[in-house]
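Run log, item B.
One chain of 429 residues. Sequence copied directly from the ordering sheet:
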Amino acid sequence: MSAAWFRLALRVGALGLKFMLTIVVARTLGFDAVAVYGVALAVSVVSSKVLGLGFSTEINRRLAGPNPHDAVRTCVRLSVLYAGVYALLCGIAALPVDAFGAARIGALPDMPLLLVVLVACAEHAALEVNTWLFSLHRARAASWLLFVRTGAWAGVAIGALTTRAIDSIDGLFAIWIAADVFVVAAGWVLIAGAAHRLPAMPALSATRVRLGAVWRDGAPFFVALLLLSVLQYLERFVASAQLDANELGRYVFVWSIANAIQTIASATVVAVAAPRLVSALDSTRAAAPAFRAELARALRASLLLTGAAALAIAFMHPWIFRLAHAGNDTPSAAILAVLLLSFVLRAAADVLWAAAVALRAGRVVAGVIAVLTLACVPMSIALVQDQHALGAAVAHLVASIAVTAWLAWIVTSRVAAVRGKRAGAGNAA
């Protein structure tokens, strides 16, 4: 089996398990629990970007380069810093209830603050280690760990729910956290092995890279990535304050089905294309043509994959809805159609984001995404108030169109600039 088909098989397997988990949660715990799970997932995704502290994008760019020795060493120092932040946050969350009380979001049931913080920290740690392994061009091993943290744990949770070994959303979160801990431990063993197999470290590489330099180069992308994560879940946060738990749970269920196409593309296309785009720019005179060819290949693969997956989901959605006892009403089908189109665009935007990172276009991306976020907040509020769950889906689509269009413009203009610089350098030579 080729590497691409192997990654696709693992990702589809993981998504199948996540599908089944959402269905089992709906059948055993109800759509109120699906709403809690969905909002907690959104909080953990956004928090995982915040916990990157501005280092993630730049350190991954350095790991993907031709000499990642210093970057691996920096990862060790970053892990110590992250561990201190986790301990601080968990310590605050563990303070007596009288100090902070239970976390409550909109109309949802109370969620223990410490459990939410633990999930966020575990997700961030597993995400970082998994992404570092991808950036070191160890795609097969990284794909297995991605399967564990996105699919295998869901399989365990399905078994626990169906056998009544757990009977609450708290037990589900505990299994989730345990899987992330395993991924972190296994990931570091693999990173250490990859570091030992690198060529001998040149003398110049013995100098320690300052964390401040990594943060400075990565800070614009930190802001942009955080805002992109907010835009990914903005309408869900708005809906959680305006819809009842049952309607929100049904929206989260449909959203999770549609999001599968972006998740597949992220693990099979973007995870591999991102380090290749960085490597393409490290070439000499052929940098711009090689970069454009790699970008076109990744965009084409993303659109073909997500388009086919969207058609398959649209065809199968009545069966999926009946399996979850969600009915087959027209509003849910309309919401699914809107979200499928939105996530096709989001998957393309992920490829363009990887290209922007390789081109170091952080400042302009951060500025554009900040403006889009400010514009999307009132739009989402108005659409959810007027059209409820369908309005939330439309808000997500409008944001996807804007993000994809602007990223395409930024990348296109930057590639032209790279081509101009290389041509000028060639003429001077």
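Observations after the first pass:
- Confidence is low (pLDDT under 50) at residues 98-108, 201-207, 423-429.
- The chain is about 85% helix and 0% strand.
Flagged for discussion on Thursday.
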